[in-house]
Amino acid sequence: MQSDDLPLSKPHPEPDGEQGGSNLVTGLAGWNPAVGPPGWVPGYQTPAPTGGPPAGPTQHTRGLSPFGMPARHILEIPLLTVVVVLTALFFALGVLLTALGSIPFQLSAPLLLAPLILWLQRGMLFASLRTSGVKITPSQFPDAHRMVTEAAARFGMTTVPDAYVVLGNGAINAFASGHGFRRFVAVNSDLFEIGGAARDPDALAFIIGHEVGHIAAGHVSYWRWLGMYTVPYLPILGGSLQRAQEYTADNHGYCFRHRGASGAMRTLAGGKYLNALVGYDEMADRAPVERGFFVWLYNGLVSHPVLTWRMWALRDRSRHGNLLWRPNRKVVLPPNAGFLPPAGAFPPPGGNFPPHGAVPPQGGPPQQGGVAQQGGIPRGGYPPHGTYPPPNQYP
């Protein structure tokens, strides 16, 4: 651990109760529902809480709701096992064929030198963030820094990852990675802007929870990346593993700030200016409707779930997200695990996400410059560029 790692401190001693162990569902440390997940102390309030799941939950669920530890996608580990075995076989075959002279070293070098290539790539990525990114600190973007710290505590992590804002040039993106013992997340500036008070801070919290969730779930480990080195050469199978990891990270984001799931997905769909005009349920409802071979093929080849399926999965918290086959129209029911969360914790089937003040209404931005709003679209068309007020400087 390097000196500028920020360890999570516990202001009070751990309460008595059984903690630790292995949870086959979540893939994280097990915990006693009466005590709460690791990192949380009942009765201790984090500084200036910004919403999200309560500390020290008493409801025990499958982890797909905002209560309990987030669930790992049910197919993630089986798919990872298959991919790692295939990668090891490819590597062994490459060594054997090269040693026998069947293939030249120039052809097998990208595979045989994978450990070195991957180490260099991760080191260069971290160096670019350290030298060109804006680091999120308690004095620079303090609200975002608190989100990162609270997300790490929520997932039972012992070290807070570094976080950076990088120039997006219009791209809506965020990512998590690591190098050595360091872990870090980065958010493009165009996506980070939605965290301003005039926009949707909860959506930014969901995104940060998603990226920190990648770290908590072990998705950025060097050895995991090395075992997944052949993913680009494994169509359908490799993409399915990547999409399972994204669903796992979405579960982390949802457990950290479920109120921001709707705004985050609308931003990914319509961008930072039109996100308030995107109808979440209207788009999610297309998941079982849009069908055909090319829809299946496109979803099977991409690294992230297609947005309609992803939005459906975030709305239906009773089951894991679909990897290869489109969702069906079965009634969405909350999971029955013996302890149900409070009423209203689950979005109603086919209905809107629970309303909250931080997410702009789906009717669109407030009336600007005398332009009347009707049905979410300004009467007479959209106002000219510059009519909407610029977002407040974050935070």
Topology:
Elements (H helix, E strand, L loop, with lengths): L5 E2 L11 E4 L6 E3 L44 H24 L5 H8 L1 H19 L1 E2 L6 H13 L4 E2 L1 E5 L7 E6 L2 E7 H4 L8 H16 L5 H6 L9 H21 L3 H14 L5 H5 L8 H9 L5 H9 L57 E2 L2 E2 L17
Parallel strand pairs: 6-8
Antiparallel strand pairs: 1-5, 2-3, 4-6, 7-8, 9-10
Helix pairs in contact: 1-2, 1-8, 4-6, 6-8, 6-9, 9-12
What does it look like?
This protein is globular. The model is unreliable at 1-62 and 331-395 (pLDDT under 50). It has helices at residues 76-99, 105-112, 114-132, 142-154, 189-192, 201-216, 222-227, 237-257, 261-274, 280-284, 293-301, 307-315, and strands spanning 6-7, 19-22, 29-31, 134-135, 159-160, 162-166, 174-179, 182-188, 373-374, 377-378. The chain is 37% helix and 9% strand. It is of the alpha+beta class and 395 residues long. Helix 6 crosses helix 9 (261-274). Strands 4-6-8-7 form a four-stranded mixed β-sheet, with helices on both faces. It has one domain (66-361). The protein contains twelve helices and ten strands. The two termini are 29 Å apart.
- How do the helices and strands follow one another from N- to C-terminus? EEEHHHEHEEEEHHHHHHHHEE
What is the terminal-to-terminal distance? 29 Å
Helix content: 25-40%
Number of helices: 12
Rg over CA atoms: 22 Å
The description of the largest β-sheet is:
4 strands, mixed
Integer count of domains:
1
Percent in strands: 5-15%
Strand order of the largest sheet: 4-6-8-7
Low-confidence stretches: 1-62, 331-395
